[in-house]
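A student in our group prepared the protein record below, which I am reviewing. What it holds is a sequence and that sequence's fold in token form. My question to you is simply how this chain folds and whether the tokens agree. Do not assume that whoever made the record got everything right. I have pasted the whole thing underneath without changing anything:
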Amino acid sequence: MKRLLSRLVGTCLAAGLLQGAARPNVILVMSDDQGYGDVACLGNTMIHTPNLDRLHGQSVRLTNFHVDPTCSPTRSALMTGHYSTRAGVWHTIAGRSLLYADEVTMADVFAAAGYATGVFGKWHLGDNYPMRPQDRGFQEVLVLGGGGIGQTPDYWGNDYFDDTYWHNGRLEKEMGYCTDVFFDHALKFIDNRRDRPFFLYLPTNVAHGPFNVADSYSKPYRDRGVPATMANFYGMIDNLDENVGRLLTHLEQVGLAENTILIFMTDNGTAAGVANPNRQQTAGGNAPTWTGFNAGMRGQKGSQYEGGHRVPCFWRWPAGGIGGGKDVGRLAAHFDLLPTLIELCGLSKPPGVHFDGRSLAPLLKGQEAGWPDRTLFVSVQRQELPPKWVRSAAMTDRWRLVNGEELYDLPADPGQQADVAAKHPEVVASLRAAYEDWWSDMQPAMARYARIVVGAPEANPTSLTCHDWHSDQVPWNQGAIRSAPWANGWWAIEVARPGTYEFTLRQQPAEAAFPIQATQARVRVGEAETAASVPAGATSVTLTLDLQPGSARLETSFTDEEAGKSRGAFYIDINRKD
């Protein structure tokens, strides 16, 4: 990886790309779980998003733009220009949300070209070396742990307000609502990087559950008959919109609006923008008068149907001729962004990397003539090994083949209600063959593991959580940790250096000071294993193993001998003793 990045820097230097202040800045804002219909300018008559609406009016809008149906996969494809499966990320937990170490990221490319790089918000591609954002090209980092505030790797007790985040590798407490905090740091980053171009990645935590927001944002929606959960969801987006307004105003005030490529998108279909009227109530206990808006699409977050993966995508760059309120309806996807930005910013493509995406620059500049027909693929692969055909869609500009069997003609049937597979067997056969080729291309990536490196000088000690267990019973949020399930799994690790390693096992993180509910603790790394008794009331147990470098499977257990059951250590600190 380091050799590849060194070659990339050398290529940029040879091309003279580390000079020239006229190169555009890039700001990529990506909200979480906000669907295509969760913006007023796209047809939602309830939600209040004046600043996103203003940006929409100033932008080229990709109206047939697709991502993965869940968050980690989308982030991996966005960062690498590859299908998420190729990048090693096809789940949001269970060791399959970790980005392969040999992938070159968007931040790597910008950093190698002399850009300042920063990320503020939700990373969700690994909390340990070598997957952390600071390992992947970002120079300024402020992120939450895991896939959302309140999840297992996040700081214990975070609840969106006055939380503790990872700032350049250290835990720091911040005051304020999460979205306000991330935008505050983003604006400071802009002000502190005026001497050279910057790449700013702003992947917000909102509007991800558990939908916490100040009542002042949600109450106006409840008062108008919006169900309580959706009112909170809309309130989170209302606050996000305010922050987008702050960003737009700041860029104008500091004179950067014209030569900044500003992109807004979301990471998957809506999570809470469509209500079930039989299960939702208003604050007064009455049936809601508003049941949401999904732009006529079928499916939501996590679905292989259009509503799971077609999302808004706005591009504005006045100095580059991109903007003016134009719609582009050709098929495009998240992995197109990196090759597009490389072309627009005049960067060097990473040597030896072959993108799955392609540059959208011609479409953004109104040059659709000669644009090729494409067949793209999305799937919902929330398992240790992805199942073939299951919850998948093969897409062209016109057609959607769902699960290898159902065929929908999108221009005629945007809601995907009429399966026309029997009428067009030749289209089904063609798309099935394309999927087979794609699947064969992805299979080598599925046979690999993204391994957390322990004992490396870059991250010693290191802390692991059960969020990254390879298991079908992962306690992925802090509520699950508190319920103390009888669950276990294993971590895929790489021991960096030979030596004596200390393993400190906990049931809850150190800041929780929670007594372990067990009498015996065990740790196993490959063939090496040790165990010890757990003293009454102990909040941690430390065990020691001598290890050699190499790939290994790390397993732990806490056994309650009286109950005759065991669970894994949900939290573990690993320290190679020097």
Summary: Confidence is low (pLDDT under 50) at residues 9-21. Residues 228-253 form the longest helix (26 residues).
